[in-house]
Amino acid sequence: MSVKKILTEPNKLLRKVSIPVEKVGKEEQKLMDDMLDTMYAANGIGLAAVQIGVPKRIIVMDISRDENKKEPMYFVNPVIKNKNSENSKYEEGCLSVPNQFAEIERPNGCDVEFLDYYGKKKLLKAYGLLATCIQHEMDHLEGILFIDYLSKLKKSMIIKKLSKSKLSRIVV
Ligand code: NI
Fold this sequence. Notes:
The chain is of the alpha+beta class. The protein has helices at residues 26-41, 128-141, 152-166, and strands at residues 46-48, 58-61, 73-83, 87-94, 97-107, 109-115, 121-127.
């Protein structure tokens, strides 16, 4: 298991649509292990494979936020089967959009069909934070970031800031 580099916006790969996984094998499990390590190291609660440069439809999450009681979740080829008509708002951030936060409105619940760590088919009825987190991560699989829901002006301001912070500063 190892900690990988997390890609940050602007980056073309983050805008790619991830491809479905044919079979959950050793390679995919190793990828999920690395993703989880990377997510924990960055203090995130969710990570999509494309964020470490692998455009496959894989997500890891742990919304327990408890160091002593880790509750990792793995989603391979997740598909949303049903969305609630009621929405909820959360202040969202993203490991690929460092230090930026914005209130985003999404359906407050959804049913998700997916394969687990062992390739077994599962259905999860998610509510609240879990539902928001899954929808945020599934957006990554389509090349969508939470800043895409903001106004053009707000979004371009954030991207400008991030582009600037990527330059290395020297004082001579
Ligand atoms: Ni994200």
